[in-house]
């Protein structure tokens, strides 16, 4: 998935992960695994994704399944970009 690298960069920036960003992979768990990813950070990440990809997340689009891993988040973004 082409967007995984972009998603990793957005997460690294929005969550201020620093060098830890290099450890992000498609199977990296997000919610519950990254302490930086709290409810306020989710809003920042979504805003950054919307700005970067030119998409809009509706309230119904945002749930724990979307933020399960970097790969699941990337897959949702790719689907939304094709709509």
TrEMBL record:
Protein name, per record: Acyl carrier protein
Pfam families, sorted: PP-binding
PROSITE patterns: CARRIER (PS50075)
Carrier domain span: 1-81
